[in-house]
Amino acid sequence: MEKKNAIIITAGYLDSSNGKTAHGLIRGTERFNIIGVIDSKSAGKDAGEVLDGRKRNIPIYASIGDFSTNSSEKAVYCIIGVATKGGVIPESLRIMLKEALDNGYGLINGLHEYISDIPELADLAAQKGLEIIDVRKPKKFKDLHFWSGKIKTVLCPKVAVLGTDCALGKRTTTRFLVQAMRDAGYKAEMIYTGQTGWMQGAKYGMVFDSTLNDFISGEMEHAIVQCWENERPDIIFIEGQSSLRNPSGPAGSEWIVSAEATSVVLQHNPARKQYKDMEFYPAYIADPKDEIALIKMYGGETVALTINTAKMEQKDARDYASRYQKELGIPCILPLEDGVDALVPVFEAMIEKSKSTK
């Protein structure tokens, strides 16, 4: 895959959870070469340092004009790196996208509203011969798949990375796990289920929340089967979405029931008591012990708990992980702070077991 130069629009939200698409791309992507971030609030800094204190040589510019004037590199694409309320493209963002087109950059969009449906932007892109990619645009009916049962032909371990809520870093943990297993000498693959996973370069997957409900199980199965047939990996990790109990968008059972992921890594943020952006609603995030019990009822075994430490002191997070490791009898780790190498032996054992039963 030839990596194309790209800049990311974060519009003042780089240092917030609304910038999670940008955060993923800053941490790593095999699809694009990120050469700049557009964020007036953090202009002049390094994007990696703003994200997590680690310099990544990705400069932040105040505007697209600032980038075009001062960068020695030319961008091919401009990526929307923020989540907006309702997934719409507000007027302030449309102005920036028009400026990107005026400067000769194609547009990559992961929001629910499609740039290709905005005449002003679509027409300008067509006039300039620039590409618009609306990642969440659904497949055509003829390209969709019903669940078929072919998942039974996949003989390697399949591990779902689920969470107790949305926006907890499940995708990032999934990528960490894939890389850790590759570093340990195994052939590991990731199944993406969201737009950012595609942007980061994962080869196999589907965009869960823009797939017609009747085809969700089939599209997930098809992605996993294609991955198995083409790559013959030792292990497959499947990126989770939302959570089993999130009232605004429950998800997770398909990963266990339809994709037959018999093992689960559960991501949790102890500081978050209510579901993201639903503090007005009397629904509370389950204790990991209860979520693990529910996962078991579906047929999945939770093999590790990973801790998102947002809004926590690191000591408190480590104390929590230590306590829960003793209570649950499974590894409990902090992926961003410590990596996931401690989980490699867990998956090595799964791989060896699967090979012995083939």
Word description of this protein:
The chain has 358 residues and is of the alpha/beta class. It has two domains: 131 residues, Rossmann fold (3-Layer(aba) Sandwich), CATH 3.40.50.720; 215 residues, Rossmann fold (3-Layer(aba) Sandwich), CATH 3.40.50. Helix content is 35%, strand content 16%. The chain contains 13 helices and 13 strands. The strands form two sheets. It has a seven-stranded parallel β-sheet, sandwiched between helices. Helix 4 runs parallel beside helix 5. The longest helix has 16 residues. The radius of gyration is 20 Å and the shape is globular. The model has no long low-confidence stretch (mean pLDDT 96).
Largest sheet properties: 7 strands, parallel
The SS-based structural class is: alpha/beta
The first-level CATH class of the largest domain is given as: Alpha Beta
The CATH superfamily of the largest domain appears as P-loop containing nucleotide triphosphate hydrolases
